Amino acid sequence: MAKTNMSPSRNVMPTQDAKVRAHNFDEVALGYSEATAIDEAMRCLNCKNMPCVDGCPVKIRIPEFISKIKEGDFEGAYQVITRSSSLPAVCGRVCPQETQCESRCVRGIKGESVGIGRLERFVADWHNTFSTEVPARPVSNGHRVAIVGSGPSGLTCAGDLARKGYEVTVFEALHTAGGVLVYGIPEFRLPKRIVAKEVEALRQLGVKIETNVVIGKTLTVDELFEMGYEAVFIGSGAGLPNFMGIPGESLKGVYSANEFLTRSNLMKAYLDEPQTPIMKGGRVAVVGGGNVAMDAARTALRLGAEKVYIVYRRSMDELPARREEVENAKEEGIEFSLLVSPTEILGYSNPDDRRDPENGFVKGMTCIRMELGEPDERGRRRPVAVEGSEFTIDVDTVIMAIGTSPNPLIKSTTEGLEVNRRGGIVVNEDGLTSRNAVYAGGDAVTGAATVISAMGAGKTAARAIDEALSR
Ligand code: FAD
Ligand code: SF4
Ligand code: SF4
């Protein structure tokens, strides 16, 4: 075997050129080749105490899978990863690795950490391209479980139970399975074919997926029990958008990021003949500084906007989006308007002529400059408005990306289901809610979080459901 690669820098991820990719929806990062993956794997010191594993919420045996890559046994590496994670091609792309596994890597002390996420992505893509293995369908154990929502928490819970022989049905409100992985995260970060492949693998295991079923409307949780399901897992996410409550938010041309991204991603608004109306072109302000804001801004650019601003009330140091995505957005030409907060969205209004077709459209946004004051309860310095610093930016579209909350529909139709003051379903350490045999996990419990934490919650609940039903 070749010697350890002691380079302080990780292998560069090849990407599409910024000027080209700003006008297409193809994936930005192109992935490692076999030779690059092996070279990067050689940077791993195979540490005995495995600090990187502590940083992974689902405890993937990182040094073990990287050792397999060093040997050129990519399928072996895939098998190691999938003992702990059911969505490696997704997590290798979108996990915030820099604050998780990679933040604990010892190579990061005197240089850059091993590119663990990039290697995970490589292995998963290799398997999806070259492996022809079809998993055997497990023998049924006769127990039936219903899953609400087909995001990462629901898909993971479904997969873990199906592999143990449970008859699992996933009920999904939208027409496509995948949750935020398909309706939120854009194609240029996570191609839809990757999520479709994971969903197909679950179908091969025997999982039934019923789309266009809204639990709380089409069927209630109680009706699922009447239909013979013995346990229910709620993985309905946090899809209810927050707004600022400033004047002008009901004008035409104001979107929540969720609506904007769903129209673009699921309803293919980028086609020349889209199935849904959406803004294309013009000047766009995206309010917020998280991953969702970056995705909305970069999508607006790809839909043809002339100018896109990120309007964020704190500074770059506090901006919560992944650094890689911020750098990508800057390279593509997104302008960051920092320490700025909107106070009013301005619209064309001509009260004297109610038929004026320009009535009710966004024409600009008034903002105020901010400075950072004392830290808040989470330790982040609180933004404080600078008196008299108002100014107006000329925009035609405003996209609000300031967070989301769990939808109250399931709570309001399920008696005895306890939620906290933020609308998150209250669960114990096994994911069990205040209702017998009803489990929950992912964003529906925590509020907006990460793919890997939702997956971890799906795994925990699957384990607990199995324990309860196999007693
Ligand atoms: P979701 O993925 O939200 O799935 C819930 C599913 O339940 C949806 O399909 C919904 O339609 C369905 N549903 C809701 N109510 C009902 C009902 N009543 N009946 C039936 N079905 C229902 N995380 C990262 O780790 N990295 C990232 O880079 C990242 N980027 C993101 C970008 C965007 C634009 C967004 C919105 C989120 C991003 N996240 C990211 C967060 C991550 O995607 C979520 O934390 C994760 O998807 C939560 O998984 P979940 O299974 O809890 O719910
Ligand atoms: Fe790192 Fe995420 Fe993979 Fe865990 S799942 S090893 S945190 S990239
Ligand atoms: Fe390899 Fe870094 Fe993990 Fe050590 S901490 S085993 S070098 S990935």
List the helices and strands and how they pair.
Elements: H1 18-21, H2 34-41, H3 51-54, H4 62-70, H5 74-82, H6 88-94, H7 116-130, E1 144-148, H8 152-163, E2 167-171, H9 180-183, H10 192-204, E3 208-210, H11 221-226, E4 231-234, E5 240-241, E6 254-256, H12 257-265, E7 283-287, H13 291-302, E8 307-312, H14 323-332, E9 335-338, E10 340-347, E11 362-375, E12 381-385, E13 391-393, E14 397-400, E15 404-405, H15 409-413, E16 438-440, H16 443-446, H17 451-469
Parallel strand pairs: 1-2, 1-4, 2-3, 4-16, 6-14, 7-8, 7-14, 8-9
Antiparallel strand pairs: 5-15, 10-11, 11-12, 11-13
Explain how this protein is built.
This protein has 471 residues and is an alpha/beta fold. Helices cover 32% and strands 16% of the residues. The protein has helices at residues 18-21, 34-41, 51-54, 62-70, 74-82, 88-94, 116-130, 152-163, 180-183, 192-204, 221-226, 257-265, 291-302, 323-332, 409-413, 443-446, 451-469; strands at 144-148, 167-171, 208-210, 231-234, 240-241, 254-256, 283-287, 307-312, 335-338, 340-347, 362-375, 381-385, 391-393, 397-400, 404-405, 438-440. A five-stranded parallel sheet has the order 3-2-1-4-16. Helix 8 links the parallel strand 1 and strand 2. The protein is globular, with a radius of gyration of 23 Å. It starts with 17 loop residues before the first helix and ends with a helix. The model has no long low-confidence stretch (mean pLDDT 93). The protein binds flavin-adenine dinucleotide and iron/sulfur cluster (2 copies). Flavin-adenine dinucleotide is lined by residues 94-96, 148-154, 171-174, 179-180, 184-185, 214-216, 235-237, 239, 261, 291-292, 295, 407, 409-410, 442-444, 448-452, 454. Residues 56, 58, 60, 62, 85, 91, 95, 97, 100-101, 116-117, 120, 452 line the site of one iron/sulfur cluster.
